[in-house]
Amino acid sequence: MTTLAAKASRKKTHGNDSPASSPIEQRGQPRGPLPADLLAWYDRHRRALPWRARPGEHSDPYRVWLSETMLQQTTVKAVAPYYARFLARWPDLNALAAASLDEVLAAWAGLGYYARARNLHACARALVERYGAQFPTSESALRELPGIGAYTAAAIAAIAFDQAATPVDGNVERVIARLYALATPLPAGKAEIARHARALTPSRRPGDFAQALMDLGATICTPRRPACALCPWNPSCAAHARGEAELFPYRAPKREAQLRRGAAFFARRADDCVLLRTRPARGLLGGMAEVPTTAWAADFDDSQALAQAPRFGASQKRVAWRKMAGVVRHVFTHFPLELTVYRSELPRQAAAPAGTR
Questions:
Q1: What pTM was computed for the model?
Q2: Which domains does the chain have, with CATH numbers?
């Protein structure tokens, strides 16, 4: 009797063909993701990147830092040639610290987000002065350096020093949001995503795990048409189980950016020298050269533009400016810009006003 009851009990518990070890799956929920599954996938499918150490090699913190700084808001394809040129010209911290800021900015030209270049240069000098051209190994010490925020500090600590740190970039945010079907839209959901990512980070091979998460997001768990069938965490993904992977992460609606307008003044001397000035070190396009402009504002009045035009000579003499047809348009990350251009031709002896060259 006891034997028959036990058999009946086991049959009822197991259901049709469900394994005995899947009570979570019986409730309609996927099993939890295992770091080992992702690491096994990474060992087979890791990307070959110019800054990434080969299997069995130690990562160079200088290369990790340089690449992670360049990769902020920029694609791997765009970064690769800049990284190669930087490394060839400045192969280590001492070489980069010895360079002038103008040299670094010139080498960075075209990569965008120029504050990164200024911070890169300042950080190299700080590392030489404070640490003898060595990188500190802790996240907290790394975050005290110029231009190194939470993500970059965690990336260096994990990848270069195998610390149990968890860098969370856009690829990682997407993977984690889908894995747990997190409903809080970005950017409000960033803290929740980071908590989940930290909880997953293993004590063994945290650097490889960090890069595996990045690779998974970049190659499999892509923004559109994620290749869920190839994902090592497919059985664990809540969004995939719901058939809604592409909907995650949710994002709060963006406010429409307000158009800013202004005027730019192109002054050329008879010897073909063009009047330039340097933007303030902090802020948008900090430290970059530009032709003089008015302030950029939503309520810019073009009829008042010439009142802000450069003046020349000790008497602050006004010169003749010709308004060019059309406008120059550019879209920054947070706002679009339209500039009306005024042009003036100056004699060879004209001297640049104060604050210009």
A1: 0.78
A2: 35-247 (1.10.340.30), 260-346 (3.90.79.10)
What is the CB neighbour count within 10 angstroms for residue 305?
20
Angle at 180 between CA 174 and CA 185, to 5 degrees: 55
Number of Cβ atoms within 10 Å of the Cβ of 306: 14
The tens digit of pLDDT for each residue in 225-275 reads 999 999 999 999 999 999 999 999 999 888 888 999 999 999 999 999 999
Q: Which residues have a catalytic role annotated?
A: 68
d(CA 122, CA 119): 5
Torsion angle of C-alpha atoms 249, 252, 253, 256, degrees rounded to 10: -110
CA distance 228 to 236: 11
pLDDT tens figures, 133-150: 999 999 999 999 999 999
Q: How confident is the model at residue 279 (pLDDT cuts 50, 70, 90)?
A: confident
User: Cβ contacts of residue 309 below 8 Å, gap of 6+?
Assistant: 263, 265, 292, 318, 319, 321, 342
Three-class DSSP category at 312: strand
* Beta-ladder partners of 262: 339
Q: How far is CA 1 from the centre of its chain?
A: 67
Q: How far is CA 153 from the centre of its chain?
A: 13
The answer to whether 287 and 278 are in contact (CB under 8 A) is yes
Phi, psi of 226 (to 5 degrees): -60, 140
Query: Is the distance from CB of 47 to CB of 217 less than 8 angstroms?
Result: no
The DSSP element (H or E) to which 329 belongs, if any, is: strand 328-331
Going by C-alpha positions, the residue among 176, 170, 125, 174 that lies closest to residue 146 is 125
Exposed e or buried b for every residue in 328-354, given b needs 16+ CB within 10 A? eeeeeeeeebbbbbbebebeeebebbe
356 neighbors 276 (Cβ within 8 angstroms) = yes
